[in-house]
């Protein structure tokens, strides 16, 4: 099976092409540092070719529900160190995903007087779970040009903390409507400075972040996640193909380790292209010369087909990895899969988190 063959990311050789997608599970401590339960969760899944952690905030201005994770303080690095050590102890490899929520931060959890920030003062049209109930996002404060370098510095600091924690690399979360995606797309970026207007200007923020974290890990240990067609909350772009062709070409020039694209339409229209618009994976494949990771609704069969066809070099799995800590082994044996329980995704505690059975628990070899 092609999914079980090795692949290289920079100077790192992965034993298979099955990655665990980054997924928020809300089990970290009150300080937003992972605990022993989080370490066990990742260690259980260490047979993946690559584990990508849940999105970790790089700034106090990037906060959401309780239990979500961060990586900008020493206490966070200490928590993630136990995760990395447990994963490495089982022969695994793990990249830390870094993000800033931007306009999607929960204002009820910010310090008094603070407001969420964004490229422009355009609120998200989504609702999100706040301190007591669901709330409508308010208008963010547009970052001043001079402030942007400070945010880039926050990503650099987060990468340094991840390096201190013993992570194998970094994935930059430039997808799903968070701050970097807000800069990329012209529905949310109305700036007139060097970070707005042209595609090259809107991509500048992402490239500066990639350059900053590459200074810590080396470009070959850096991945970038994108979601070209994501449209929730009123985000989007007037020329998606041109924008992400530029993104892919620029990242290719920087020599990053991999490009991680969410595109398949099986999980809902917000992830797939609008009717009549093309899927972009073939274009990304042509423009980006490094490893390409695909995500969204894949099965073992469709992932294998994507690898065989050359559409992707790796495939990341989300909900299948929630319910199947030994997903690689189940794929290898074509064994039955556990069903995930969405009601327990963010419940807290081990239920629906570390208690899904592995094949060996059922006596399978």
Fold blueprint:
Blueprint: E1 7-9, E2 12-14, E3 18-20, H1 36-44, E4 50-52, E5 56-57, E6 69-70, H2 74-89, E7 94-99, E8 117-118, E9 127-129, E10 134-136, E11 141-142, H3 145-164, E12 169-173, H4 179-184, H5 199-217, E13 222-226, H6 240-254, E14 258-262, H7 281-287, E15 292-295, H8 300-309, E16 314-317, H9 319-323, H10 327-333
Parallel strand pairs: 3-4, 3-16, 4-7, 5-6, 5-7, 7-12, 8-11, 12-13, 13-14, 14-15, 15-16
Antiparallel strand pairs: 1-2, 9-10
Helix pairs in contact: 1-2, 3-5, 5-6
Description:
With 365 residues, the chain is α/β, with parallel strands linked by helices. It has one domain (2-362): Aldolase class I (TIM Barrel, Alpha-Beta Barrel), CATH 3.20.20. The protein has 10 helices and 16 strands. It has helices at 36-44, 74-89, 145-164, 179-184, 199-217, 240-254, 281-287, 300-309, 319-323, 327-333, and strands at residues 7-9, 12-14, 18-20, 50-52, 56-57, 69-70, 94-99, 117-118, 127-129, 134-136, 141-142, 169-173, 222-226, 258-262, 292-295, 314-317. The strands form 4 sheets. It has an 8-stranded parallel barrel with strand order 3-4-7-12-13-14-15-16, surrounded by 5 helices. Strands 1-2 form a two-stranded antiparallel sheet. Helix 1 (36-44) packs parallel to helix 2 and helix 3 runs parallel beside helix 5 (199-217). The chain is globular. The model is unreliable at 265-269 (pLDDT under 50).
Name of the CATH first level: Alpha Beta
Shape: globular
List low-confidence stretches. Answer: 265-269
Report the CATH superfamily.
Aldolase class I
In sequence order, what are the helices and strands, one letter per element? EEEHEEEHEEEEEHEHHEHEHEHEHH
């Amino acid at each position: 099976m092609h999914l079980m063959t090795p692949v290289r990311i920079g100077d790192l050789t992965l034993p298979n092409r099955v990655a665990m997608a980054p997924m928020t599970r809300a089990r970290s401590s009150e300080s937003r540092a992972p605990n022993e339960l989080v370490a066990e969760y990742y260690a259980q899944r260490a047979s993946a070719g690559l584990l990508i952690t849940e999105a970790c905030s790089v700034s106090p201005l990037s906060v959401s529900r309780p239990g979500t994770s961060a990586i900008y303080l020493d206490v966070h690095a200490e928590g993630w160190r136990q995760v990395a050590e447990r994963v490495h102890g089982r022969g695994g490899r793990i990249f830390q995903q870094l993000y800033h929520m931007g306009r999607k931060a929960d204002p009820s959890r910010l310090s008094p007087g603070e407001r969420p920030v964004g490229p422009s003062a355009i609120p998200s049209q989504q609702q999100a779970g706040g301190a007591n109930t669901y709330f409508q996002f308010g208008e963010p404060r547009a970052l001043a040009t001079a402030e942007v370098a400070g945010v880039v510095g926050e990503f650099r600091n987060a990468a340094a903390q991840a390096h201190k924690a013993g992570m194998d690399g970094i994935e930059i979360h430039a997808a799903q409507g968070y701050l970097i995606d807000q800069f990329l797309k012209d529905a949310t970026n109305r700036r007139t400075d060097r970070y707005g207007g042209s595609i090259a200007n809107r991509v500048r923020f992402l490239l500066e972040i990639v350059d900053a974290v590459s200074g810590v890990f080396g470009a070959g240990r850096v991945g970038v996640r994108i979601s070209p067609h994501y449209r929730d909350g009123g985000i989007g772009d007037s020329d998606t193909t041109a924008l992400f062709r530029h993104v892919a070409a620029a990242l290719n020039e920087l020599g990053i380790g991999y490009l991680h694209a969410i595109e398949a339409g099986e999980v809902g229209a917000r992830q797939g292209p609008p009717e009549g618009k093309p899927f972009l994976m073939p274009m990304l494949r042509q423009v980006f010369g490094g490893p390409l990771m695909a995500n969204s609704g894949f099965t073992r069969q469709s992932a294998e087909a994507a690898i065989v066809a050359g559409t992707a070099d790796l495939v990341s799995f989300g909900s299948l990895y929630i319910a199947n800590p030994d997903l690689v082994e189940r794929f290898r044996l074509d064994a039955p899969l556990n069903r995930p329980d969405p009601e327990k995704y963010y419940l807290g505690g081990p239920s629906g988190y570390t208690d899904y059975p592995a094949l060996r628990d059922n006596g399978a070899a």
